[in-house]
Amino acid sequence: MAAWGPADALGRRILCGTEYGTVRYVGSVPPTAGIWLGVEWDDPQRGKHDGTYEGTQYFKCRHPRGGSFIRPNKANFGVDFLTAVKDRYGLNDEQHVQHGRESTVVFGKKTVEFVGMDSIAEKQSQLNQLVDISVRECAVSHAGQKEEISRTCANIRHINLSKNLISSWETVTAIASQVQNLETLIISENKMKFPSTSTSVSSVFSKLRILALNQTEVTWTEVLLCAPGWPALEELYLASNNITVLERPDNVLQTLKLLDLSDNQLLDGNQLHLIAHLPRLEQLILRNTGIASIHFPDAGFGYKTKMFPSLKHLAINDNKISQWSSINELDKLPSLRSLQCHNNPLMDTEKNPETLRQLIIAKISQLEVLNKCEILPVERKGAELDYRKIFGNDWLAAGGHWNPEKNKPSEEFLATHPRYPSLCCKYGAPEEGELKAQQPLTLKNQLLTLTIKCPEKPEQKPVEKKLPESMTIQRVKGLLYRLLKIPGSELKLSYISSKLEGKEVELDNDLKPLHFYSIENGDCVLVRW
Fold first, then answer.
1. How far apart are CA 85 and CA 186, in angstroms?
2. How many C-beta atoms lie closer than 10 Å to residue 130's C-beta?
3. Residues in a beta bridge with 477
4. Share of the chain above pLDDT 90, in %
5. What is the DSSP letter of 66?
6. What counts of helices (H) and strands (E) characterise the chain?
7. Kind and range of the H or E run holding 495
8. How far is it, in rounded angstroms, from Cα 3 to Cα 160?
9. Of 147, 291, 366, 463, which one's alpha carbon is 20 to 30 angstroms from that of 9?
């Protein structure tokens, strides 16, 4: 264990059994004799009071029962980095592999198993080959002797230091300064003090590409103060840090490709405007950030925003988005290809999840993946055609017309359906006759009259069948199994549209209904087995 002294202990992270805490007071607590440590526990259930004992306040706690006093000999102040590495990988001179710890480790691309390495020289050689090191939950609290890490582990590139006893960013810098080619650094779950003023830029993190600071209590201001020292950073993870407000990064984080702000309750959606000009940002994760709306005020409907120019992947699941206007706004992002938006109040506006999915696809033109599920061209076409029909009567009522000279839909309609004009350009404007066919549905006009053929079995005569458009492919196969006396599980279905001659579309998803594939009356279903 690291040595401690009364002055040194204040602010240090400690372990007591399995409980983590921070030392907030060192000194006497009358009427008892001797030195006590006043500790604020990470888990307030472990505490007894708020730092006030017998009417005297010795320290402050965030939680009214988050603190208590312990004797110094009960506190584990942790070990240095190299001791933890040797313990973790069974490379301490005086011990074999610890029971329950990893006995294998990856050196470059090779996995090496440690079996009875007796000579110190051999162990030293193995330490020198370590590339990827994890000392998670190993009570690391300090760097150790100067230059010892660089002498012993010269080839480290990736370090996982999560959930240790690191008290300050200074300690992280002291460790990293001895690792010449550090690319990945995970220091999540360490409650640390970060610099409150700008620090002199050094080359310690000059090659760092990935940095995880989840649950470290870092603020966005502190991130920006440290960021000049991260000139090559590509991925930054800042989940669960009570970050509420953002500031515009000035000449920092310009290389960033991924930013995770999950589980921080942001003040509002406008905070995003402050990080909207990171030129290379491709992935933004905003899960559970309390966002209720998204708006890009610099661009009108039908135009692309200058914000988030490179953003391809956006995650806004578990938020408070309730209006379709926020989904409309996402179509303004010039590079958006993938969206996750589960668990928003908006999702409750449609009972059928399939309809909801189709509406989102129709509203965001360049989307290729929605909620981790690929959008195939046939699905996009079906979604856009359905959207054009469903809102066709609203379009006519708002001043829309198939004749371009008379087509003057209201601003209100265009604000609600900004993609409608482009869908009319793509597929043609809906005509009144076409929309009249969309009268309130009865079972009769939900039925599709389809011709069923078996192209590889000419002796089997074509059959005409009326099927509900809501029938799933799986149920269609079950029906054909009975009708044609063939095993349903081995069937391969496709169809040829009466309007698009020669183009065959596979019915390849058993869980989808017929209308998903835009099958219409008079189309021909082909059956193979």
1. 15
2. 23
3. none
4. 63
5. -
6. 15, 26
7. strand 492-496
8. 24
9. 147
Question: Tokens representing 137?
Answer: 């939950």
Q: Specify the pLDDT at position 478.
A: 73
Quick check: 358 and 383 in contact, CB under 8 A? yes
Structure tokens belonging to residue 318: 């578990």
Kind plus residue range of the DSSP H or E element containing 422: helix 420-427
How confident is the model at residue 97, as a pLDDT?
Answer: 41
Residue 115 has what pLDDT?
Answer: 44
Compute the distance between CA of residue 524 and CA of residue 464 in angstroms, rounded to an integer: 9
**Which residues lie closer than 8 Å to 403 by C-beta, 6 or more apart?**
none
CA distance 235 to 212: 8
What local confidence, expressed as pLDDT, does residue 132 receive?
Answer: 95
- DSSP sequence for 261-317: -TT---S-GGGGGGGTT-TT--EEE-TTS-------TTS-TTS--SSSTT--EEE--
Is the bond preceding 513 in cis, omega lying within 30 degrees of 0?
A: no
pLDDT of residue 124: 72
* Residue at token pair 């300050």: 168
pTM: 0.78
d(CA 270, CA 505): 44
List, in order of start, the domains of the chain with CATH numbers. Answer: 6-74 (2.30.30.190), 131-377 (3.80.10.10), 389-434 (no CATH), 447-528 (3.10.20.90)
Instruction: Identify the pLDDT of residue 8.
Output: 83
- Give 219-269 as a DSSP string: -HHHHHHHGGG-TT--EEE--SS--------SSSSTT--EEE-TT---S-G
Strand-pairing partners, residue 56, are 53
Q: What angle do CA 83, 84, 88 make, to 5 degrees?
A: 120
Task: Show the low-confidence residues of the chain (pLDDT under 50).
Answer: 1-2, 6, 95-103, 105-110, 112-117, 437-445, 488
